[in-house]
Write a sequence for this structure.
């Protein structure tokens, strides 16, 4: 067989391929003219900037010796092809080297020289880790902290973060560290530098601690050098979570106390308004007003307990300090002064008499008033109690839980100030006259109107510190001397010739408007202190009657709804013309305390009034439309 033609074809093919390859230009490399080669140690990466092809690239480190063939190292091209990165071998010789970039047959020098320093000349030191106590990041769920030191690796990724007793932590790649969601999914640490902080401040993000891992020591390895360790404490909760948990624990404790005492604290009802067990903590039952001495001791006790609970949780859950927190020196003294003020106030009240009861309903104004008038010493004591309690809480809650080691100290000056306020409050109770207190008010007699003479109502008042010289008001309207009279019945203290009475009789000479509905009577002593009570205690009341009845002379029956109904009522019907007709008692049928049936003749069309009168001559009025 003749192989000569085959050899000729192969030769022509090889020759043609070589010619074509010779015509294709080799990939070009352009290196930046700026001096970017650093002084570094072995095991660290070096970056060269310029323009590079996507083909494999090597760098060659050569010394100035003519026979040196260099140290070839693989380089990595960046995604934008504007830089390459290579790592100095951990066993490379020290000294100064020229760097050449090689691709194919092309070799391009890099300006400057690369100085590889001995490891002992660039020892890695770790000066601090901040924050000393780290809180979990709400986005990634890990902990972030900064490691500050000297001679850290030039590239953040060249640093190896070592957890003492565990080993090097796995660092995430750029894709795993692109955002909080990626970091949370990868569960790896992410390393970075802020601009200008390269080699000095290393950001460590997304560290995930192990369970019950409170205090941890970290070191940094850069090249062949490893720093000394620094300690970091990792908090279990975030600060806002800790505050919420502290409030929850405090409320749970308060709920236990409230549940224990609730059965022993009866609910009060004053003038139709309920005051439950919570209000009873501040309520002075003698005057049915809020007590300032009770308020201040409860306020200081509350903030002290909350502060201790919060401090305890900070030390255990954040600082990992499992010991009971210390009590500041001034706090026991403060609580002692507070309790002593309450006890002294109770004693003064028992010996000297109470303040005036003031308005019928307890209110916050009771803390700074006595019998309805503002008292300067009570105002001062109340304000300084608020300032102290709020300041105490403010200092605790505004302090970083990691650095809160004890409750705020109550210094001597502040204790002196509170002592002066307490003394002023107690002195005010001593020098001020006792105020009136109404314990029971009843209607003893009602004289009906006769001709031009109006109705007369007599009120029997029982209580404390009642004066027959008091000014009387009804429904905030001050009565003239001819409209009322006061006479004392029983002296409060007959042995001491006391000016006050325990029982008095008040006669209201113009009482027509007081026979129906509920009214308030005010007793105001000479010093301005007052007491208030409503009368009658169980007023007859009728709900609005919405239906219209038919006019005429035929009797009709209406079904009334109201409160405090009873047998024995009397009735009068006033028709649209103003004429009055007595409703026979037999036509008023008692159903129950809330229902009454009344039969009467409606008469002319228009709006009339059905007036019901109790045996005690109190009235209830229902307006009825006659069509």
């Amino acid at each position: 067989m003749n192989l000569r033609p085959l050899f000729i074809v192969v030769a022509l093919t090889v020759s043609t391929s070589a010619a074509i390859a010779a015509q294709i230009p080799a990939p070009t490399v352009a290196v930046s003219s700026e001096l970017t080669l650093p002084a570094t140690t072995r095991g660290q990466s070096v970056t060269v900037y310029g323009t590079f092809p996507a083909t494999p690239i090597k760098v060659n480190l050569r010394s100035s010796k003519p026979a040196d063939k260099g140290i070839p190292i693989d380089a990595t091209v960046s995604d934008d092809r504007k830089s390459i990165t290579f790592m100095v071998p951990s066993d490379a010789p020290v000294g100064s080297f020229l760097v050449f970039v090689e691709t194919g047959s092309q070799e391009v020098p890099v300006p400057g020289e690369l100085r590889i320093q001995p490891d002992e000349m660039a020892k890695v030191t770790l000066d601090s880790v901040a924050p000393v106590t780290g809180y979990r990041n709400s986005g990634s769920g890990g902990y972030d902290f900064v490691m500050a030191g000297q001679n850290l690796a030039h590239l953040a990724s060249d640093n190896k973060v070592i957890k003492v007793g565990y080993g090097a932590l796995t660092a995430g790649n750029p894709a795993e560290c692109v955002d909080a969601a990626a970091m949370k999914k990868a569960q790896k640490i992410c390393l970075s530098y802020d601009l200008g902080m390269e080699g000095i401040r290393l950001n460590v993000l997304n560290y995930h601690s192990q369970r019950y891992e409170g205090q941890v020591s970290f070191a940094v390895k850069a090249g062949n050098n490893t720093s000394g360790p620094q300690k970091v404490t990792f908090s279990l909760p975030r600060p806002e979570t800790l505050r919420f948990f502290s409030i929850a624990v405090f409320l749970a404790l308060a709920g236990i106390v409230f549940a224990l005492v609730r059965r022993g604290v009866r609910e009060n009802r004053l003038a139709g308004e309920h005051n439950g067990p919570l209000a009873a903590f501040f309520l002075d039952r003698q005057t049915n007003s809020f007590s300032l001495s009770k308020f201040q001791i409860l306020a200081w006790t509350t903030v002290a307990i909350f502060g201790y609970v919060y401090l305890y949780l900070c030390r255990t859950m954040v600082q990992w300090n499992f010991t009971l927190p210390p009590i500041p020196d001034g706090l026991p003294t403060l609580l002692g002064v507070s309790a002593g003020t309450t006890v002294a106030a109770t004693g003064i009240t028992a010996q000297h008499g109470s303040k005036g009861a003031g308005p019928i309903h307890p209110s916050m104004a009771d803390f700074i008033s006595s019998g309805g008038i503002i008292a300067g010493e009570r105002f001062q004591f109340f304000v300084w109690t608020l300032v102290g309690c709020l300041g105490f809480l403010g200092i605790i809650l505004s302090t970083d839980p990691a650095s809160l080691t004890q409750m705020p100290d109550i210094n001597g000056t502040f204790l002196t100030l509170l002592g002066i306020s307490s003394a002023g409050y107690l002195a005010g109770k001593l020098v001020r006259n006792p105020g009136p207190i109404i314990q029971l008010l009843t209607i003893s007699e009602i004289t009906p109107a006769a001709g031009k003479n109006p109705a007369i109502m007599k009120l029997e008042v029982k209580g404390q510190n009642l004066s027959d010289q008091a000014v009387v008001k009804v429904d905030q309207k001050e009565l003239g001397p001819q409209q009322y009279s006061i006479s004392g019945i029983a002296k409060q203290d007959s042995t001491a010739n006391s000016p006050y009475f325990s029982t008095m009789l008040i006669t209201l000479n113009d009482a027509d408007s007081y026979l129906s509905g509920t009214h308030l009577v005010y007793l105001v002593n000479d010093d301005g202190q007052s007491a208030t009570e409503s009368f009658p205690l169980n007023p007859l009341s009728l709900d609005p009657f919405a239906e219209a009845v038919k006019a005429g002379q035929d009797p009709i029956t209406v079904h009334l709804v109201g409160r405090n109904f009873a047998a024995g009522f009397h009735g009068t019907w006033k028709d649209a013309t103003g004429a009055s007709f007595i409703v026979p008692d037999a036509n008023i049928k008692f159903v129950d305390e809330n229902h009454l049936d009344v039969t009467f003749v409606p008469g002319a069309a228009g709006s009339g009034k059905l007036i019901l009168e109790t045996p005690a001559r109190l009235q209830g009025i229902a307006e009825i439309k006659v069509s």
